[in-house]
Amino acid sequence: MHCNFIGHLENEETACVGMTGCPGEEDVEFTILSKHNVGFYMYRWLKDGTIEGVESEKKVFILLVNGQYGHT
């Protein structure tokens, strides 16, 4: 079974969300690119329910193009 998701936040259509992993079966990693996000944009959701921020070794540039967030 593949558990991958790409989409938007319900209350913020311009926010991008990506998730890999099956909740409850394995640790899940997800990214939220939102104008409201402060600090981390990458997270790890552990099988025990703990959510931790993941520091990135790479710089991510958030671009607003035609009303949509993206990254390079």
Query: Which ranges are low-confidence, i.e. pLDDT below 50, for 5 or more consecutive residues?
Result: 60-67
Q: What is the helix fraction of residues, given as a range?
A: under 10%
Give the overall form: globular
Using only CA atoms, what is the Rg? 13 Å
The pLDDT mean sits at: 78
How many DSSP helices? 0
Label the structural class. Answer: mainly beta
Helix and strand pattern: EEEEEEE
Q: What strand order characterises the main sheet?
A: 1-2-3-4-5
How many beta strands in the DSSP annotation?
A: 7
Count of domains = 1
Main β-sheet, in a few words?
Answer: 5 strands, antiparallel
Calculate the terminal CA-CA distance, rounded to whole Å: 29 Å
> Beta-sheet strand percentage?
over 45%
Protein described:
The protein is an all-beta fold and 72 residues long. The protein has one domain. The protein is 0% helix and 51% strand. The chain contains no helices and seven strands. A hairpin with a 5-residue loop joins strand 4 and strand 5. About 11% of the residues have low confidence.
Topology:
Blueprint: E1 4-9, E2 12-20, E3 28-33, E4 42-45, E5 51-54, E6 62-65, E7 68-71
Antiparallel strand pairs: 1-2, 2-3, 3-4, 4-5, 6-7
Provide a brief overview of the structure:
The chain is mostly beta strands.
Supply the key terms.
72 residues; mainly beta; five-stranded antiparallel sheet; globular
